[in-house]
Amino acid sequence: MRRSFAAITALACLVAPASVLAENAYITNFISANVSVIDTATNTVIATIPVGLSPLGVAVTPDGSKVYVANAGSDDVSVIVTATNTVIATIPVGSVPRGVAVTPDGSKVYVAVESSHNVSVIATATNTVIATIPIDGLFVFGVAVTPDGSKVYVTNVQSPNPSVVSVIATATNTVIATIPLGGTSIGVAVTPDGSKAYVANVANAFFNVFVIDTATNAVIGSPIPVGLSPFGVAVTPDGRRVYVANRDSDNVSVIDTATNTVIATIPVGSSPNGVAVTPDGRKVYVANQSSNNVFVIDTASNLVLAVVSVGIGPIAFGAFIQQPAPFAGTPGEPDCHGKSVSALAEQFGGLPAAATARGFSSVPALQDAINVFCRG
211 with 352, same domain? Predict the structure, then answer.
């Protein structure tokens, strides 16, 4: 057995790493009631997965093994296993689920249930609802978890005056703060260091992004003007940029977090809603609901690299791109790659099976992920 693993390791080391790390993007198609799976290495659709009615919110678990899809029309959440791209469970929640987010440890999923005015908490181990948290808002919509997993930020499409963002403590699953913003708040994203939350907001004729200090739960500075009807929000892994999809102006605003000013405006398709950044920070994917496609943006130049046709009415509201799978070994050690390959081969019975189980399109894509991991 050891000889076979050594042979596998030796063979693996001879395989040239793929030039691009492949993580799939899961795009919810609101009208066609399915999810398009895009291979981010090739920008091609590799699978189409039927889910519930009117899928909107989407989130991938940190280990990349599962995807949770909020189906607004069927009042439930579909659970997709990425190894096979099939639905393994359907979880009833309240009326009209919208945003969805997974805790960093992958143990819980928080679902904003719009018309029930609450947040459902799902245990990923059992795929059952373990708590329901009332929210003081007319329609709850967006949801984001802090990187340390301690707090959840929930936006309200409309609230009693003034409009608020609710803050949930995950330890008790209770609301510990309400942050008044006014207007209508939809998308929310927390920076990788957990220090700030960026919230898309519409107030009368004003279209802004608010910045919240997560330590004090207070608004920092003045709102940042962006395009018309800001919807989805995503932060780059280095925390330096925020990308905001502006649904009614058909563009994406790029915010520099050092100055909290817009440094670029990128034209995209019609009615952009969802936006997410690849784990390496090199590309941004934008779901355009009315043009039935996804635009791929190069973050270095803020230019469009590709346009991918998907299903009907893509929204993809949430963190819809897989993160790199963790591997054995210690980054920086000479034998990190060998240990990782051997561990995966042993666990899954070979590298092809490991690539499939981890959600990679090929062994070279898996190899590239191992090399990225080992560089630390």
Answer: no
Q: For residue 143, which of 96, 83, 186 has the smallest C-alpha distance?
A: 186
d(CA 81, CA 65) in angstroms, rounded, equals: 6
Task: State how many domains the chain has.
Answer: 2
Predicted pLDDT of residue 18:
31
Question: What is the distance between the alpha carbons of residues 203 and 5, in angstroms, rounded to a whole number?
Answer: 61
Q: What is the pLDDT of residues 131-169, one digit of tens each?
A: 999 998 778 999 999 999 999 999 988 766 667 899 999
Residue 353: inside a domain, yes or no? yes
> Residue 160 class from Cβ within 10 Å (0-12 exposed, 13-18 middle, 19+ buried)?
exposed
Residues 230 and 357 in one domain: no
| CA triple 231-233-238, angle to 5 deg | 170
Residue 325 lies in a domain: no
| Structural tokens at position 173 | 């699953």
Residue 17 pLDDT grade (very low, low, confident, very high; cuts 50, 70, 90): very low
**DSSP string covering 193-251, please?**
TSSEEEEEEEETTEEEEEEEETTTTEE-SS-EE-SSSEEEEEE-TTSSEEEEEETTTTE
CATH number of residue 123's parent domain:
2.130.10.10
3-state SS of 306-328 is EEEECCCCECCECCCECCCCCCC
Residues facing 251 on adjacent strands: 246, 267
Cis omega before residue 162 (within 30°)?
yes
In this structure, are residues 254 and 302 in contact, taking their beta carbons and an 8 Å threshold? yes
**Higher pLDDT residue, 218 or 136?**
218
Judged on CB neighbours under 10 Å (0-12, 13-18, 19+), 226 is buried
Q: Tabulate helix, strand, coil % of the chain (nearest 5).
A: 10, 45, 40
CB atoms within 10 A of CB 121: 21
- β partners of residue 180: 164
pLDDT-based confidence at residue 325 (cuts at 50, 70, 90): low
> What values do phi and psi take at 256, rounded to 5?
-85, 115
My answer on whether 113 and 183 are in the same domain is yes
Q: How confident is the model at residue 128 (pLDDT cuts 50, 70, 90)?
A: very high
Q: Does one domain contain both 283 and 344?
A: no
